[in-house]
């Protein structure tokens, strides 16, 4: 009904001025801006929508403002009607904010904060006004009016806290915090004028004893920090240092765990696990605020506060601590958590406060939460420790001794800390590498799976930096017990749970292979490969025994893959055995994990690698073709929908093959069936396999032109270009059908760009032929879904763009994307099938 121009005046006059009618008018006025600007079923063009928006909203702003003023002044009840405030909020998108601020509506909004009925709506309205003034230079007159009115609300903070009125306190906190967010650049520019607003936000932070509202201030403190750390605002930064210093003290207090009401010190939240989890998450957000404070104040003053808090507790309560009880432990745990949060910002050269704090940490009385917090701190400062080796021994012993406690949380924390202290201080722990293995062997079975991996990462890091002459012996020392455990687990595995334990334990072997990678001169034997040769038969036997259990197959293949990645061409002696097992495994199981390893081998032993002889390269390519043949047979036996994961792995492998062996592959007899299999796979609807297939097709098509997706910088030979073009000419119609059908009907949204990229590649090398294919496919669409005139218009536009040259080709891509998107929005796939658009089943008889 675009012809109805006087919508607002007519609705208002028609409904009249009775109380019931005014409620309807307010409802209408509230939803009108929302429907006009956010309506989903608007069929107008962009220009029509813009014109209609002006007619319905822009042309009526003055009348609406006057109507709202008149209504607000009609009675005391009207002035506190939440509907009135909601209408003001809704129209703030259209009414200039200055018209509201300079009108009698501003006092109405502020006075509405005094009434419980209208408090929430008034808060929302006021915060919406602040958001409209974010462009501070443009809205400075309005801000000058708003600032004193907002500051006048500050006494209400203390009153709400005193009355324990949590809803009011949260509302006032939001008002001050969102005013600060909106005017943050002015707070940095004019600290003397806006400091009272910052102090009001600080007061909200301080008085929030229930910790329900404090999170509303976090964004403000972060955004203000972003300005104050700039050189431009260094003077303002100095003026706000004391505010951030007070903020550190407030956060430290809020970080404290609650005190147990009863005798049970372990139940701090009266059994409310949700409240406990919420508090833990909340602490990490407060830790982020502490980082903001560090960036303003500097790390040393913040750490000094931690040090003072620890010393204060030690002086007051340490002498009263026993094995069974630690008085007021919350006051000690909070600064420890704060110190941990600051860790990322502490330089490893800090020599003022940390040398005083670290010796205190290892003397903290035993208490589960204190020990947990201390271990987490030590794990966070391992880079600093690596630069201060004199503090390593005491920390290392403290962490090691923590593994003997009964607390699962402490043990998990200790495993994580060991990972970091071994990784960062690995060069300092060489003298203890043998003793470390004894500890590792004795401790490993007591740990949960994740902690086993973390501890393994740590000790493997120490092994990795030892001289290569020791690598073989150290791998035997550490990994032989792991292999013994692995064989024992495999022999006992008779159900899914026990088989999963085998797979999980395999990961520990993989971590050693992944991390222990000594540098060896070319043509020298790698001692790590010597150990790999010893364990390979065992891994092969386990693989053969559990060929039908995917997790074990994947873990064995992951181990082999990392052997190739870590030791690269030094793995040549193991390649024949590995290739045989990969070929047998894939043929027997059709699991994609075997293709992962093949892909790694292709990359590391490609034609352009140094120290790889031609015979090895040829053997590897022959092995790759055998894997490909097996996959093509699998795709003949089963439809793509039954092999989505394997198809993804296969085409990711082919991307590597095309990248590193392009000429061999394009000249291969398998090149055509692999391409046709890719076209058949376009019938899939899962994002990941489709993405792999589309990327492969794009790369293949690029070899039909002058700029192929190649790892080499050589010119693409005409012979190769001709072979690719012949392939596309023979299969182009089916390819375009698969792509167009996918973009219009079946592809997930994330694949549209890749699909149109394939079409773009086709238009670049074969523009006329591709135009003909597209035209034919569009005319195969189900009857009634698209008009012939629309197809003709699209095809004429495509031909027009192609006549421009290279720049026009990219515009063709946009045309097709727009067309397919429009078709997709209007129509769904017919239930009785796609008729002539149905894909043909892939067949391979090689």
Give a written overview of the molecule:
With 846 residues, this protein is an all-alpha fold. It is 70% helix and 0% strand. The chain contains 42 helices and no strands. The protein starts with 6 loop residues before the first helix and ends in a 20-residue tail after the last helix. 39% of the residues are buried. The model has no long low-confidence stretch (mean pLDDT 87).
Helix content: over 70%
The mean pLDDT is 87
Assign the structural class, choosing from mainly alpha, mainly beta, alpha/beta, alpha+beta, or little secondary structure: mainly alpha
Strand content: under 5%
The main sheet comes to:
none
Distance between the termini: 65 Å
Low-confidence stretches: none
Can you count the beta strands? 0
Q: What multimeric state do the chains show?
A: single chain
From the alpha carbons, calculate the radius of gyration and give it in angstroms.
35 Å
Total helices: the number is 42
Q: What would the principal axes of the Cα set say about the shape?
A: flat
Q: Strands, helices and their partners?
A:
Blueprint: H1 7-15, H2 19-38, H3 46-56, H4 61-72, H5 76-79, H6 82-91, H7 97-101, H8 105-111, H9 119-132, H10 140-151, H11 155-162, H12 166-182, H13 184-189, H14 191-207, H15 218-228, H16 234-254, H17 273-297, H18 299-317, H19 330-342, H20 354-361, H21 368-380, H22 382-386, H23 392-402, H24 408-424, H25 433-443, H26 449-464, H27 468-492, H28 496-515, H29 527-545, H30 550-567, H31 575-589, H32 593-604, H33 614-637, H34 644-660, H35 662-667, H36 671-681, H37 687-702, H38 718-746, H39 752-765, H40 767-778, H41 788-802, H42 806-826
Helix pairs in contact: 1-2, 2-6, 4-6, 6-9, 9-12, 11-12, 12-14, 12-15, 14-16, 15-17, 16-17, 16-19, 17-18, 17-19, 18-19, 18-20, 19-21, 21-24, 23-24, 24-26, 25-26, 25-27, 26-28, 27-28, 27-29, 28-30, 29-30, 30-32, 31-32, 31-33, 32-33, 32-34, 34-37, 36-37, 36-38, 37-39, 38-39, 38-40, 38-42, 39-40, ...
């Amino acid at each position: 009904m675009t012809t109805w121009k006087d919508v607002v005046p007519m609705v208002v006059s028609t409904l009249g001025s009775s109380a019931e009618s005014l409620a309807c008018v307010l409802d209408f006025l509230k939803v009108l801006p929302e429907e006009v600007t956010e309506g989903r079923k608007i069929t107008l063009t962009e220009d029509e929508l813009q014109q209609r928006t002006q007619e319905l909203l822009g042309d009526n702003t003055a009348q609406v403002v006057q109507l709202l003023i008149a209504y607000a002044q009609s009675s005391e009840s009207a002035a506190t009607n939440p509907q009135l405030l909601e209408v003001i909020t809704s129209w703030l998108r259209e009414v200039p904010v200055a018209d509201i601020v300079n009108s009698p509506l501003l006092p109405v909004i502020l006075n509405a904060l005094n009434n419980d009925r209208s408090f929430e709506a008034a808060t929302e309205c006021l915060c919406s006004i602040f958001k409209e003034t974010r462009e501070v230079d443009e809205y400075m007159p309005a801000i000058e009016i708003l600032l004193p009115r907002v500051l006048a609300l500050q006494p209400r903070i203390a009153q709400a806290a005193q009355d324990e009125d949590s809803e009011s306190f949260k509302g006032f906190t939001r008002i001050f915090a969102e005013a600060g967010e909106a005017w943050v650049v002015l707070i940095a520019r004019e600290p003397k004028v806006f400091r009272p607003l910052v102090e009001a936000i600080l007061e909200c932070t301080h008085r929030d004893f229930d910790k329900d509202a404090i999170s509303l201030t976090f964004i403000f403190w972060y955004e203000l920090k972003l300005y104050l750390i700039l050189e431009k605002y260094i003077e303002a930064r100095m003026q706000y240092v004391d505010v951030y210093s007070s903020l550190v003290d407030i956060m430290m207090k809020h970080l404290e765990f609650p005190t147990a009401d009863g005798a049970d010190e372990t139940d701090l939240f009266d059994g409310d696990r949700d409240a406990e989890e919420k508090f833990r998450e909340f602490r990490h957000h407060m830790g982020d605020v502490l980082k903001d404070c560090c960036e303003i104040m500097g790390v040393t003053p913040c750490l000094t506060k931690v040090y003072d808090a620890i010393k204060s507790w030690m002086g007051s309560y340490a002498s009263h601590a026993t094995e069974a009880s630690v008085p007021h432990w919350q006051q000690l745990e909070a600064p420890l958590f704060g110190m941990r949060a600051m860790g990322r910002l502490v330089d490893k050269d800090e020599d003022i406060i940390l040398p005083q704090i670290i010796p205190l940490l290892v003397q903290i009385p035993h208490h589960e939460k204190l020990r947990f917090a201390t271990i987490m701190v030590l794990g966070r400062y391992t880079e600093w420790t690596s630069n201060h080796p004199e503090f390593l021994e005491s920390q290392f012993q403290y962490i090691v001794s923590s593994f003997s406690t009964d607390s699962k949380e402490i043990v998990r924390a200790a495993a994580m800390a060991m990972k970091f202290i071994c990784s960062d201080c690995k060069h300092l722990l060489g003298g203890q590498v043998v003793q470390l293995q004894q500890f590792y062997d004795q401790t490993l079975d007591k740990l949960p799976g994740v902690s086993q991996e973390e501890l393994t990462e740590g000790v493997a890091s120490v092994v990795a930096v030892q001289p290569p002459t020791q690598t073989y012996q150290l791998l035997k020392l550490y990994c032989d017990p792991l292999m013994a455990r692995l064989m024992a687990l495999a022999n006992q595995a008779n159900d899914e749970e026990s088989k999963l334990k085998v797979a999980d334990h395999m990961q520990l072997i993989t971590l050693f292979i992944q991390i222990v990678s000594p540098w060896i001169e070319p043509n020298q034997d790698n001692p790590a490969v010597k150990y790999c040769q010893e364990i390979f038969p065992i891994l092969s036997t386990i693989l053969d025994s559990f060929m039908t259990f995917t997790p074990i197959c994947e873990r064995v293949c992951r181990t082999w893959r990392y052997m190739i990645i870590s030791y690269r061409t030094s793995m040549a002696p193991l390649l024949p055995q590995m290739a045989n097992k990969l070929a047998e495994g894939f043929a027997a199981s059709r699991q994609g994990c075997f293709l992962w390893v093949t892909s790694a081998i292709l990359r590391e032993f490609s034609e352009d690698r140094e120290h790889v002889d031609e015979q090895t390269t040829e053997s590897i390519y022959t092995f790759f073709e055998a894997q490909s043949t097996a996959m093509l047979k699998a795709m003949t036996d089963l439809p793509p929908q039954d092999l989505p994961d394997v198809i993804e792995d296969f085409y990711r492998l082919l991307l590597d093959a095309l990248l590193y062996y392009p000429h061999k592959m394009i000249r291969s007899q398998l090149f055509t069936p692999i391409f046709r299999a890719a076209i058949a796979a376009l019938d899939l609807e899962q994002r990941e396999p489709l993405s792999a297939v589309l990327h492969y097709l794009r790369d293949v098509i690029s070899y039909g032109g002058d700029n192929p997706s190649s790892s080499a910088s050589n010119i693409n030979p005409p012979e190769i270009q001709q072979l690719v073009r012949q392939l596309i000419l023979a299969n182009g119609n089916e390819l375009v059908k698969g792509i167009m059908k996918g973009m219009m009907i079946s592809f997930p949204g994330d694949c549209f760009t890749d699909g149109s990229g394939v079409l773009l590649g086709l238009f670049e090398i074969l523009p006329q032929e591709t135009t003909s294919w597209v035209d034919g496919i569009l005319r195969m669409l189900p009857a009634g879904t698209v008009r012939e005139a629309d197809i003709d218009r699209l095809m004429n536009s495509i031909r027009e763009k192609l006549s421009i040259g290279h720049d026009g080709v990219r515009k063709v891509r946009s045309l097709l994307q727009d067309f397919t998107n429009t078709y997709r929005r209007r129509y769904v796939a017919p239930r009785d099938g796609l008729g002539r658009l149905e894909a043909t089943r892939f067949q391979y008889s090689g």
